[in-house]
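Hi R.,

As promised on Friday, here is the backbone we talked about, encoded as structure tokens. Could you run it through your design pipeline when you get a chance and send me back a sequence?
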């Protein structure tokens, strides 16, 4: 790595890395982000990556190309990349500009993206409190 940092958090959830792109991502930050994420995929032995783009209001050709290259590199490292949360206006702009995210898997939102990577949302069912599960703390007969 060149020492540059994109300032984009990359979280690890088991063997999946979760990150997101913001509007402030310029060309240099996009390159640094790609380097950071690629290194994390390798170092963490990640099998999946979710990139949330729901905060992006636009994607230019450089960012689109960066996402395609990142997906290709991730696949070579054994990880599956899903881009989640693309706004309809962003999708329309990509189509109007003739930009294709070839090889990039997408999901409507982060939850669907995580499900595609094998994560399930489990409803929390409140169970008995710890003292009740251990017996009556009052010592009654």
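Update: got your reply. Pasting your designed sequence below so it's all in one thread:
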């Amino acid at each position: 790595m060149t020492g540059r940092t994109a300032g984009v958090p990359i979280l690890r959830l088991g063997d999946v890395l979760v990150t997101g792109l913001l509007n402030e991502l310029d060309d240099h930050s996009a390159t640094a982000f790609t380097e950071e994420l690629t290194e994390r995929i390798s170092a963490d032995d990640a099998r999946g990556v979710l990139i949330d783009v729901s905060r992006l209001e636009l994607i230019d050709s450089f960012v689109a190309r960066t996402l395609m290259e990142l997906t290709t590199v991730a696949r070579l490292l054994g990880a599956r990349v899903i881009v989640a949360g693309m706004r309809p206006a962003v999708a329309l702009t990509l189509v109007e500009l003739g930009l294709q995210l070839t090889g990039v898997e997408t999901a409507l939102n982060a939850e669907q993206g995580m499900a595609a990577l094998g994560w399930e949302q489990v409803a929390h069912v409140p169970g008995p409190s710890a003292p009740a599960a251990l017996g009556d703390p009052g010592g009654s007969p």
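One thing I noticed while checking it: The chain is about 40% helix and 15% strand.

Thanks again,
M.
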